[in-house]
Amino acid sequence: MSIPPAQTSERSTHRGNCHCGAVRFTFSISPPLPKYPTNTCNCSICSKNGYLLVYPFTKDFTLETGKEVLRKYMFGLKRSEHKFCGTCGCSCFIEIVEEGAPDIIAVNVRLLEDFDYDILKINKVDGKTFGPEYKV
Ligand SMILES: [Zn+2]
Questions:
Q1: Is the pLDDT of residue 1 over 70?
Q2: Which residue in 48, 28, 52, 50 sits closest to 39, CA to CA?
Q3: From the CA of 20, how far away is ligand 1's center (Å)?
Q4: CATH number of the domain at 12-126, please?
Q5: Residue 114 Cα, ligand 1 centroid: separation in angstroms?
Q6: Are strands 91-96 and 53-54 parallel, antiparallel or unpaired?
Q7: pLDDT tens figures, 35-68
């Protein structure tokens, strides 16, 4: 599957928030959830954070509140900023800062108001094999 997947004539709009509610965001995506493949990955950061990711275009994503409480975590080649709530610790989304990367943002669908794991079209990614071995 390519990221992002090919768009269709359908789209869906979603609201998400961290556990304490300080961080709130909205986005729209095509194909709509639950048809959109939601990535679950076995790489170190996805495993630790429990990420379930979809990839709206940045123009279709709006951070409504929480800019001031968001903190970022970067590691390895520092190609992306993992944004999490500085109050409750929820992993919210990932901003890709690598030059030439597609204009998308990775959003953790676990934070959606209407989150329902059972309806998602899960796409397993073997990210563990992509990079250098994870060690701490
Ligand atoms: Zn929070």
A1: no
A2: 52
A3: 4
A4: 2.170.150.70
A5: 17
A6: unpaired
A7: 999 999 999 999 999 999 999 999 999 999 999 9
